[in-house]
Amino acid sequence: xxxxxxxxxxxxxxxxxxxxxxxxxxxxxxxxxxxxxxxxxxxxxxxxxxxxxxxxxxxxxxxxxxxxxxxxxxxxxxxxxxxx
Length: 84
Description:
Elements: H1 2-10, E1 22-28, E2 33-39, H2 43-48, H3 62-69, H4 74-77
Antiparallel strand pairs: 1-2
């Protein structure tokens, strides 16, 4: 739900003159699901790179950091890592 709620918020974050555009699609199966989120934002890797501790994260590593480990470190969130 976090990814879906963030579409309008992050779709044009930090970029003036860019209209926030985005959509999501979900396919649910018995043993897995596929979620696709597309927007006009900077992407998971670009969002992580705003934090100096994540600047070296690759586009391939970013989804796991965001979806599995949470994207914020203790000092960023004021406490425990914030899960998404």
